[in-house]
Amino acid sequence: MNINKHLILLFSVLFFLFAVSVSSGCFRKNESDVKSVVRNELDQLKNLDSETTQKYIPYTELFPDATENTDLTDEINKTFSLFFRKFNYKISDVIVGTANHSATVSVKLTTIDSKVLARDFKAELLRTQITESAQAQKGNIKDSSRSLEAHYLILNHLLNTNDYDTAETDCNIQLVNTGNDKKEKWKIQRTNSLEDDLVGGLIADLADPDILSPEDTLTVYLDTLQKLDLKEMTSYLGVVNIMNTSDTAKNSIASALAEQIHKNFNYVIKSSSENGYNATVTTEITTFDSDSILADYQEKLDKYLASADAVIDGSQKRYEKSFEILLNSINDNTVTTVNDVDFVLLNDGVSWKLQDEGNTLGNAIFGTLTDSPLETSDSEDENISADTDKQTDDNTSTESSSN
User: Is the domain of 274 the same as that of 171?
Assistant: First the structure.
């Protein structure tokens, strides 16, 4: 009797151990299957497979604010290939649900440092928009920077010209078993969170309205301004009134002023403050001294107008002479001025933007030269001409009376 009891107990223990062994084997097999699915998908990303990339990160998702969509082009595929060239991963844990219906895989992803890339992209996009705005104001209508293709061209350029460091992201990949009891079929669940994790947080960083601070934003404006050509610069800064002359004269003065900016313009950001969606950035601006230019111009003009040559030259020549004096005063200027300027920026939920950018920058750089001194000179010339004509008439009347 005791022997039978012992045998029953022994068989029970053996059966339990066998069941545990089978269960453990199945569990390990499930873990292995889950890990295999994740490895296969991530390896394809690592090997720059375009189809897999688009399955998890559709190319339209990266730039939802682009105004014009485009088809998936070779350039876009190349951009993703450039981004994932440093992609790597390490699976740290696999958890399969008790019902064998779901699983979670913990992975450490290595990608390009998305925060630095996003900051560079936003700066380059703003530079492009400023340049196109300047070109549009001078008649060259172009707004390509808002298209999806242009966004990817900028990203492609940055990835081609810069060697970005890598960053690590902890990611949990969720899987569901879409098979049955006889045959399991594990499938990765695509989520917005997974999309962003696979690109190292780039989607969230690009959507961050503060990725460029007010100071960074103003720096882009000022640096871009220095690189504009003379037509773009004078158009963008809204100083057309300065060029109140013929086209030839306008180009000469514009060129001289642009040269003064290129030679003398500099800036130092001193402080900034934010109040909700508004920010004020106090900046020390060094630029040519417009007061000195105007003083030199007025002194030489007065001297000329008081001479006999001014009377002999006539109205048109006096006007041309006044232009020549102004141009020389600009070209010969070596005096600079330093002033603190408060630039106001507004965050519209997308990024920080400089308010009334053209006029604000124009006033800061051109100072009192935002109005044309030639208008005054022209009026003075007309007055001198009228006085001269009156004097001539008086002399004629006197001579007639004498006769």
Answer: no
